[in-house]
Structure to design on (372 residues):
């Protein structure tokens, strides 16, 4: 990781400083020239560190780009072709492998967990701990020691370390699902304690808890909030967000303004949120926002050229925090960029919509084999 070390040191210091001091105002990363300078420096370091990536980018016609948009995105499928990231990583995050069956899981090697925490911290503090009030945390995500290859579990572990968290419990097991009775008893105690509760959950685990508690709802303390993520990938049960949030209100007494949606990927170290606990807007009007060191584009699913404004396409994210692996990632998610910032998620690409992603993945595999 020698070619990357200097820029990783500098980037981690920048992100750590922002997480500690940012109050919601402007950020230097929002300036295009600042972001572009970081992106090009990171790109050069990644080319030096990873010859396969350099061959891929050279084969796509961008040996010395002048702007970050000229750097072709690496398809998320590529993480299934080869482990991306440094040798001797501090952690290895793996994708669920459930979206289209039992295919090979993607693998993202994490050079520095401290950089991951620095990248995640600003966003989750702003979205989930906006007022600095004390909370009790209930995780319906496995503990990071139980599932060390889950980037989500690791992030929940970071949140549990924040000063505002008085107590944290993990009541989900990979083999058993939600520990309903433990949740019921803990939530009843929280009602007596009157300290606000912060629940962190995938949508599937949340639906499981709500179904089990439907006949015995609880009224959680004022200021309680919830983060949901992950959808229902790989599961037969699915609920619309409107219905899911209505069940949260009826079962836990957490209203829609206190429910925040999180968008994250194993392949990225930064996350996007669609609101701030306590002031999140109506579900149908929400947009996801990344921190300032991430840029999102919507690309035509076939040509991978920038889509017209307001047109649906495949999302591509350039995450500076991914400096130790690959920063420009082409997802399999569909979305639309909105006026005023942020993006609206429209689900997963399927069939013909995957054509551009698949061709890009084939190009990456050829670069691994030393071919153009």
């Amino acid at each position: 990781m020698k070619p990357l070390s200097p820029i990783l040191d500098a980037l981690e210091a920048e992100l750590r400083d922002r997480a500690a001091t940012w109050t919601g105002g402007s950020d230097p990363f929002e300036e295009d020239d600042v972001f572009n300078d970081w992106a090009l420096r990171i790109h050069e370091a990644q080319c030096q560190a990873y010859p396969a990536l350099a061959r891929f980018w050279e084969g796509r016609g961008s040996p010395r780009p002048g702007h970050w948009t000229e750097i072709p995105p690496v398809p998320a499928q590529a993480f299934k072709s080869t482990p991306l990231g440094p040798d001797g990583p501090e952690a290895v995050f793996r994708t669920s492998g459930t979206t289209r069956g039992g295919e090979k899981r993607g693998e993202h090697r994490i050079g520095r967990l401290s950089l991951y925490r620095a990248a995640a911290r600003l966003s989750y503090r702003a979205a989930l701990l906006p007022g600095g009030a004390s909370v009790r945390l209930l995780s319906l995500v496995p503990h990071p020691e139980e599932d060390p290859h889950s980037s989500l579990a690791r992030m929940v572990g970071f949140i549990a370390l924040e000063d505002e968290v008085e107590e944290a419990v993990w009541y989900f097991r990979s083999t058993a699902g939600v520990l309903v009775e433990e949740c019921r008893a803990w939530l009843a105690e929280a009602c007596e304690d009157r300290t606000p509760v912060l629940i962190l959950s995938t949508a599937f685990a949340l639906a499981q808890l709500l179904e089990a508690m439907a006949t015995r709802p609880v009224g959680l303390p004022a200021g309680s909030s919830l983060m949901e993520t992950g959808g229902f990938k790989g599961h037969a049960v699915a609920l619309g967000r409107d219905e899911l949030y209505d069940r949260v209100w009826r079962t836990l007494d957490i209203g829609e303004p206190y429910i925040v949606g999180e968008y994250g990927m194993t392949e990225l170290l930064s996350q996007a949120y669609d609101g701030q606990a306590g002031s999140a807007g109506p579900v149908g009007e929400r947009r996801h926002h990344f921190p300032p060191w991430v840029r999102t584009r919507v690309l035509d699913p076939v040509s991978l050229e920038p889509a017209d404004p307001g047109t649906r396409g495949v999302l591509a994210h350039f995450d500076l925090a991914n400096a130790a692996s690959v920063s420009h990632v082409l997802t399999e998610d569909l979305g639309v960029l909105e006026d005023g910032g942020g993006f609206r998620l429209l689900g997963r690409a399927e069939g013909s919509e995957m054509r551009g992603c698949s061709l890009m993945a084939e190009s990456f595999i050829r670069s691994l084999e030393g071919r153009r």
In short: The radius of gyration is 20 Å. The first strand starts at residue 74 and ends at 75.
